# Entry
Amino acid sequence: MKQYCLAVIIVLGANSLLFAQTIDQIPEFDNENYSGDVSELFGDSAWFGRYHPHFGYSYEAGDTIGRVGGLSSFEGFLPLFEGYDSDWLAFLDARLLLDDENHNLGSNIGIGARQYLPEYQRTIGGYIYYDTRDTGYANFGQVSGGIETLGDLWDARLNWYIPTGTRRKLLRTTHDPTGTYTFIGHHLFGGTFTRFYQAAMTGVDMEAGRKIYSGPNTDVRAFAGWYHFQANGTPQAWGWKSRVEGRISDVVALNLSIQNDRVFDTTVNFAVSFQWPSITGLRNGPRSNLPARDRLGEAPERLRNIVVTNQEIQDPNGGLLIDPSTGLPYFFMHVETGGSGDGTFEDPFGTLAAAFADTRTQQGNVVVYDHRNAAEAGNFTLATNTQVLSSGPAQFITTQVGQVQLPDSNTGLTPQITGSFTLNNRSVLSGFDITTTGAGSSIIANGVGNLMVSNNTINHTGAGTAISLSNLTGPATFNQTPLTKSGGLGVLISGGNGDVTFTNSSITNTNGDGIDIQNAGGTIQFGQVTTTNGTTSVNVNNGTANITVDNLSSTNAGADSVLINNLTGSFTLNGGTLTNSGATGVTATNSQNITIQNTTIDTPTTEGIFAQNVTNFNFSSNTIDDASIDGIAVLNGSGNGTISGNTIRSILTAFDDAIDVEIGGDATVDIDNNIITSVLALAGTGIEVSTTAGNVTTRIRGNQITSILNAFGDGINYTGNSTGTMTTTITGNTIQNTAGVFGDGISVIYNAGSATTTISQNTIDSDDLVNLFGTGIYLGLNTTGTTDTTINQNTISDDVLAALFDDGISLDIDRGTDHDVFVTNNLIAQTGGLFNDSIEVLLDSGTASAARIQVNSNILFGAGGGGTGLDVFVGSPHLLCVEATGNTTNTSLDFFAAVGGTINVEDLPNLSTNNNGATVNTAGGGTIQNIADCFP
# Structure
């Protein structure tokens, strides 16, 4: 009603201006006769009378009511009918609009009529338009119109605007997670939900003004007025406006306007327009001090763009929470003690059984929300995309606005369920205490995936499997769900290719086994696993899975604590303690990528770690005590192998070998920084490596091997039987025998293939008690392949008490004709110890062989029992070339060539001088002769 009253006032105001000729100054004008008949309707042009068409372009800079940014207008004004005496005119006015903000189009097309009233010296008119506007987000249309009165001095006009068709369009919505959340019926609402619209506004504007200046080609008028626009969802825009227009020539006009209201605030708009042939369309152009009679051909003054407002409307309940996986609203079935309703928040079910019996729950895509602290028995089968949650822990759901905590969650109230849950695709189970007895499982999943089991406890008693996961098609996550089991099996994973993760979910089984994985793929991750008195704590058979167990505590396993067979993925044990295994601590066969690290293996019945037909292995930082056979054994290994940082001790039992590695294919093996000790027990070799096939690189570095009061085999024994190429490095090791019996300190034998060998910076029996050793370093070259050996900077004995060695370094060359050996800078029994020979070189087999040897800068002390510093024996039909210089010895350098044998000695005449005055002895019926250079 307010608007109607306003319209009446405006019309009355316009009428008062219309009849206000008594205050208008009557200008002078030419009384030229424009009368004519119908044949003269179009004047001199034969088309138009006094008023001609005119075309133009205008540009409005700045914002205005309902528009942001500038506006370009391409304009056309066409006279349609002109009165007999040119006192009235009907016209067509059309414009094409282009805005600056989005470069979108709009249009105005309208018709109007004006009548000049000579008796009042005033022009009155009316017009009606259809307008369009494309905002870039929505398209709007409107019908608009207006009336006007134009005088010589005073003007007034009233315009109205009414949208048609679509008046408001939803542009987008936002849902901010901040705010409260509330259950209403079966749904959850909350957050801040905002809808963004664009709306075309209905309105009216009015202005009145007068001429304030006229010049020869200038006409300036000033206006003031008001306007009102409204649309549903937007405050009404009541505002004032003022405007100054100036015509500075026949074709150029300027316009400056200012508007203000509470919706659009203050806007300032400046416009310039160009019209041709003239602004008024007068045939002979406008006059100075333009009178009302000459203004019938002007384009009406009005808002050209449809007034559009941007709306932002918030829902008081917040938004409906959507499940992104389905695009549908979350549907809740509520369970509450004493409930007997339909599962709404206001009228919940009383039991889980009632909720699961509902057909809506059986269809899936629901959340069963249990608010109780009550006990219930039953076996529950979840439909697809069903979540079963209790209010005990903090419960979160994933929505279109991110993670949202459910109202009433984190209460600490946990339902106790005696029975089981069978999961389906995209199942979530959270916040229950589950108890199961007998052969059935607590959690069952078969042929499904995308599972989440969190914040539960599982207690299972009996022969059954507590958690059974079969043929998974997607991931399964167990989070903060500890399993306590008595008897039977803790977790079974069989078939499928889904990732399985246990996070903060320990598995404890007394009188049963922890994990059984059969024919599975994917990535499988376990945390803490504890078993007591079972058979095999972790059993893996077949499959492609990549399996990790963070920590395993196995006590009194009846067989192997860990058993891995036919696994083509990987297995990693990151720590734990395996005690009193009935067989091995860990067995891996016919598998690849096996890692056992940071694990203590105590008193296994057989090996600590046993690997057969394994490609790529890493056994590091483990402690193995009192293995009955080998500490670590690898048979027919290949690929990349690492045995590093382990502590292997024989305290009360006699292991066979501490580390026994047999390589059966191309491989790189690192055996580094292990500590091996044998105390009060018989024991085998410290580190035993053999190759049967492939090209093999072996690095044995930084190990400590100690025998105390017992008989040890070799400290390090390497045997190359492969026909491939061997690269062997034995460096930085310490081998000690305290008051006991040792075999060779380091023994390297090649029975086939080619080899490059480095034995350097090792310490053998340094500063300890009375002991017996075999050879300190033994090198046996029984191959026809090419070999290159460096024995450098080793310390053998240096014992201040008593040590008995066979030889310090012994070189035994039985076959082949391309052997180079470099023995340099070694210290052999500098202050104590008895040796047969400090360095012995022997070529005495029946097969012809040839070698070159360099013996330089060694300290050869302590030989006893008829031994020598350097003892060289060459039988028939062998050939040896010797370079010896810079050595220091307290005995002699002896050379014996049997009949048919040849020893070439570099600079033989000066051999004693070159070796610090050592005695040189030559003997035998063969050839011992001088040569210029063994290594030209």
Residues 477-931 form one domain. The helical segments are 2-18, 352-357, 359-363, 911-914.
